[in-house]
Amino acid sequence: MTSAVDALAAGPVFGLPLPELWFALVFAILGTFLFLDGFDFGAGAIFATLREDAAREAVLSAIGPFWDGNEVWLVVFGGALFAAFPSVYAGLFSRHYLLMFGILGALILRGLAPEMYEQRHDERWQRWWGRSFVAGSVLAPFLLGAFAGNWLVGSPRSLTLVGVVTGVTVTALTVVSGAAFLRLKARDALPETVTQIGVGAVAAYLLAVVVTLGVLATRLPAGVDALLSLPVLALVAASVALGVGYAVALRRGANVAALAAAAGLTYGLTAVVAVLMYPRIDPATGATVSDAVVSTLPLNLMSIGAALLLPLIATYFAVLYSAFSGPISAEEAY
C-alpha cells in the first residue's frame, strides 16, 4: 500500500496532476449519470405523449430493469465531490439546498409513480400516477440543469436565468436520449411518433444550447472570450455534428448509433461546463481546483480506492445491461 501511495504522490496520472484528474473524474461521473438516468427521464417525458395502454406499458417495461441502478451514479458523483473537494460540496449544497430537496423529491416521485401505476388498473388511479411519473421525469433533469448552471456562474440563488435555460437544455437532452433508448428497446411496441419526438427534441436541444451560451456570455467573467476558446468551439461543433447524425440514425432505424450520438451529446455538454469552469471549481468563492482539493495523503488513498471501486461498479453495469440486452418481449410490452 505504501509503495502505491508513494507512486501516486510521485507524479501525475495519465498526464494530469491528481487534483485535475479528480476534477475531470467528477464531471465524467456527472456525465455518466446524465446519460444513463437521462434516457429514463426522457422515457418518462415521452410517456406523456402516449395514449394507448400498451405503449405506456412498453415504456415502463423498457426502463424497469435500469432506472434504479442508473441512480447509483448520482450517489457516486456526490461521493466523489465530497471526497476530493469537501469545501465545494459543503458550499454548493448549503447554497442550493432548496434545489437539492427539489431534485430528491422529483427522483422519489419518478421512482414511486411507476410502481404505484402498476398496482391498480383503475383509470383515475393510473391517470394520477401517470402524471406523477411524467412530472418527476421532467422536474428532475430540469432542476439538475438549474443546479449545474448556477454552479457554473457561481450564483447563490436557486432561481436564475442561467439556471432556467440550462434546465431546459438538459431536459431536452434527456428526451433525445429517451427516444433513442425506447426505439432500441421497445421498437414496434411504440408508435412512429417517438421517432418524430426524438428528432424534434434534438433540434430543440441544439437551439437551447445556443440560447444558453448566449446567456452565459453575459454572466461569465470572461464573457464572450470564454465561449470563443478552441475547446468550447470544438465541443459545440461536435455537438452539431452529433445532433445531425442522431436525427439521421433515428430516422433510419439505426438505434444503437442514435443512442451513441445521444451519449456523445451528453458528455459533450458536461465537458463544456467543465471547460468553462476550469481552473475554478467553485466560482461563487473563486476557489480553484488546487485550492479546494484535500491534502496529498487522503487524495492519494482515495485515488487508489477509486481505481479499485470504479471498475467494480462498471462491471455491475456491464452485467446488468447484458442480462437485459435486446428488445423487450411481447409479454413485457403488453
From TrEMBL:
An MF annotation (GO) of this entry: electron transfer activity
Subcellular location: Cell membrane
Main location: membrane
UniProt xrefs under Pfam families: Cyt_bd_oxida_II
Stretches that traverse the bilayer: 21-50, 71-90, 133-153, 159-182, 194-216, 228-249, 256-281, 301-324
InterPro entries the record matches: Cyt-d_oxidase_su2
Topology versus the membrane: Multi-pass membrane protein
Alphabetically ordered keywords of this record: Cell membrane, Membrane, Transmembrane, Transmembrane helix
One GO BP annotation of this record: aerobic electron transport chain
GO cellular component, one term: plasma membrane
Domain of life per record: Archaea
PANTHER family for the chain: CYTOCHROME BD2 SUBUNIT II (PTHR43141)
Protein name per its UniProtKB record: Cytochrome bd quinol oxidase subunit 2 apoprotein
Classification lineage: Archaea, Methanobacteriati, Methanobacteriota, Stenosarchaea group, Halobacteria
